[in-house]
Amino acid sequence: MEKSLLKKEALQKLIDGVREKGGRFVAPSILARQVVYREVDCADQMVHDYIVPRNSIKEFLFPQTEPILRFRLMREGVEVEDVRVEPERTVFFGVRPCDAASCGAVRKVFTWDYIDQFYTRREDSSVMMTIACTSSDDECFCTTVGVSPEGKEGADLLLKETVDGDYLVEAVTDRGRAFVEEFKDVFTEPDGAELKAVATPEPIEGVNIDNIIGFLKDRSHYNSEIWAELARKCVGCGACTFTCPTCRCFDMVDEGTYIEGERRKNWDSCQFDSFTLHASGHNPRDTQFKRWRNRFMCKFNFYPVKFSARGCVGCGRCIRVCPVRLDITEVMIEVSEAARDV
Amino acid sequence: MSNIYMPYLATIEDMFEEAPGVKTLNLVFKDPKVRESFEFKTGQFGLYSVFGYGESTFCIASPETRKGYIQCTFRRVGRVTTALSELSVGDTIGFRGPYGNWFPVEEWKGKNILFIAGGIGLPPVRSVIWTCLDRREDYGDVTMVYGARTVDDLVYKEELRHWEDRDDLTLIKTVDPGGEKEGWDGEVGFVPTVLEEAGPGAENTVCVICGPPVMIKFSLSVLERLGFRDDDVYTTLENKMKCGVGKCGRCNVGDVYICKEGPVYTAAQIKKMYNDF
Predict the structure, then answer these.
(1) CB contact under 8 A, A80 and B51
(2) Fewest Cβ atoms closer than 10 Å to its Cβ: which of A34, A130, A329, B21?
(3) For domain B8-99, is the CATH number 3.40.50.2000?
(4) From its phi and psi, is residue A285 left (phi > 0), alpha (psi between -120 and 50) or beta?
(5) Which of A118, A222, A250 sits opposite B248 (nearest CB)?
């Protein structure tokens, strides 16, 4: 059955089914008056009228902080204990297509030669139930970067809302098909229900991604005056990087004492002035515009050119959370223009 | 190993005070299997950890030709290097590596080699020096120019004497003006100046250079005047690193991840990089 129907009333049964088997069910829900992806155990905790949750799903695959090893000082020397992730299955319900599309990019970095199993094991044991967007706001710009509000990229199952509030489910991957099969008493035959219209943001005028990539690839533009000008407002708070679904920079720190403790992998941000600061005092990215330029380069050069992946999925979170309203799409327009003028 | 961030455990078998604040550790892996199988290429680096304090990145300062142990030489500057320098013989540290690329010493067979180092830039070069000296017959003339701010700041003082005594290589040692003291038998002058005066020939010669950025910058112009091609001048780039395996997003110079695609580059390659140093 390639298409099926998930009735709104059946959601509780699905949540119960997933949880009974030891899994967790993550869905958009209200926390501190904001819509966020979080673990729910009850269908009543879920919200259905949302655009893009405040957080991305990356915190469930790449936690904000996680132990990578534990150590203890013994008489014979230090003993180190490996930490192996044995993740429970995570079902992501109501993931927006932009978020689902971001996983491929993060995975590319975490599997580039050395494989970070802390990430891959979690992603491999997840089921991505994407829901096509039926509303968007001024900050959404997925179509500008080539992501569709009803796109299947990264999805195991693509859901579309019906006018009755149910979901028409399309299996995209084998994992998705197996999931529907596993919970076949929850999914029913599609009855030809009428679908809600998909909300497609207008592509932003004046942005040409190929031109941006071309401009960034040309090393002579790295010292262009536009960077200092465009990034002048940035206060370096890092909010964009923490909410961005493809940002994945991290720090590794020891916590505890030399007698006992653990080494942790913690989210970090390339926007912080200490990020690249050498112990000697030298800092290759010593001013804010250089750090901002690095992030923009990462999105529109390193990810697409080096990793053949999407650096930006157009979710718009960085615009929504920026305290100084440094809008990345405005920079994209400026750079597209600069590229045309070359 | 499934956890790429798991270090090997190593015992500090010996430690030496090289210069004020600079120490060398002799490290032996605790696991006999690792001790047996561990191999690296000259120029590769590792992450050394003091548990409870964190990890720090240095090159492996010993040559690839010597098995059974590795050495690192570091200056005490930050939290981890301070903790490292306060350890004693017999203590355990962590080591991850070897990571990164290496100096193509195999390709240099039959060529002359010019080594240039400044201050704490000697440890990575020293790994190459000994790798080549241990296979001395494979190479032509070997010349070294090494300088430090003061006589006390020179590292590997005993090895410098040994190299001076050898007749199959030329060592020119120097200290910055004002850094000399009584009994100093070397040059007085900055490395680039001393290099230019010595004027080593560029023909059939590769150069390995490492030191403070300002020394490298001026030495590169001297090398150019001496006729060295950018393809024949090698250096190792140092950047802040955490993961060492291309994930954490810190060491990149533009699109180049130093930890994975470096740290060894030719001057020609560096000139093609984004200006992000």
Answers:
(1) yes
(2) A34
(3) no
(4) beta
(5) A250
Nearest chain A residue to B273 by CA distance is A219
Contacts of B52 in chain A (CB under 8 A): 71, 254, 256-259, 261
CATH for B112-236 is 3.40.50.80
Contact between B3 and A84 using a beta-carbon 8 Å cutoff: yes
Taking contacts as CB-CB distances below 8 angstroms, the residues of chain A near B273 are 219
**Chosen from B2, B13, B48, B51 to mutate, greatest number of chain A CBs within 10 A:** B51
Say how far apart CA B157 and CA B162 lie, in whole Å.
9
Peptide bond into B98 cis (omega under 30): yes
Residues of A in Cβ contact (< 8 Å) with B77: 279-280
- Predicted ipTM of the assembly: 0.93
- The candidate with the shortest Cα–Cα distance to A4, out of A182, A153, A180, A196, is A180
Closest CA–CA distance from residue A12 to any residue of chain B (Å): 37
User: What is the span of the domain harbouring residue A194?
Assistant: 3-341
State how many domains chain A has: 1
Contacts of A68 in chain B (CB under 8 A): 3, 5-6
Mutate to test the interface with B, among A71, A115, A216, A221 (most CBs of B within 10 A): A71
Domain boundaries, chain B: 8-99, 112-236
